[in-house]
Write a structure and sequence with these properties.
By secondary structure, this protein is α+β, with helices and mostly antiparallel strands. Helix content is 37%, strand content 12%.
Length: 133
C-alpha cells in the first residue's frame, strides 16, 4: 500500500467527520435527549411519596401511639374529672423467678400493687398511654 492511498483514505475519513454535527451520516440534532434527562423539582421527597399524600388528605402526619411496655405494666384507675386526676396502678417486680430463697412474707408483699405518685411520673404515664385512655 502506498503513501498516497493511506493519505487519501485519511482525508476522506476527515471529510466524513465534519464539525457540522454529522457523525457517520447521522445528525446529532435529530436525536431527542429530553427523555434521558430527569426533571429536577424543588419539592421535597416527602411531599411526593404516596404515604405523605395519603396523610396530608387526612390532615395529620403523625399518629400518637400507645407505648406497649407501659400498657402491659400500668393500669389507669378511673377516668377522673380532669386528665390530671387519673391514678395509675402497677404491680411489684421481683416475683417471677429466683425467689425460692426469699421469705414467705416478702413474697406475699411482692404480690401486691402500688399507685404511681402524682406529679411528673403521672404526667409521663398519661403521655405514654394517651391513645388508650
Amino acid at each position: 500500500m502506498s503513501f498516497l492511498s493511506i493519505s487519501s483514505i485519511a482525508s476522506s475519513l476527515l471529510r466524513s467527520f465534519q464539525p457540522s454535527g454529522s457523525l457517520l451520516g447521522h445528525s446529532l440534532k435529530s436525536h431527542n435527549f429530553s427523555k434521558a434527562t430527569r426533571s429536577i423539582t424543588t419539592s421535597s421527597p416527602m411531599q411526593s411519596s404516596p404515604r405523605s399524600k395519603h396523610l396530608s388528605q387526612r390532615g395529620s402526619t403523625n399518629k400518637m401511639k400507645t407505648h406497649q411496655g407501659t400498657k402491659k405494666r400500668w393500669t389507669p384507675l378511673g377516668s377522673g374529672s380532669k386528665a390530671s386526676d387519673i391514678l395509675f396502678k402497677r404491680g411489684f417486680a421481683g416475683k417471677s423467678h429466683l425467689n425460692s430463697g426469699m421469705a414467705r412474707n416478702r413474697l406475699n408483699n411482692l404480690g401486691g400493687t402500688t399507685l404511681a405518685p402524682r406529679g411528673r411520673i403521672s404526667k409521663t404515664l398519661r403521655r405514654l398511654l394517651a391513645p388508650s385512655l
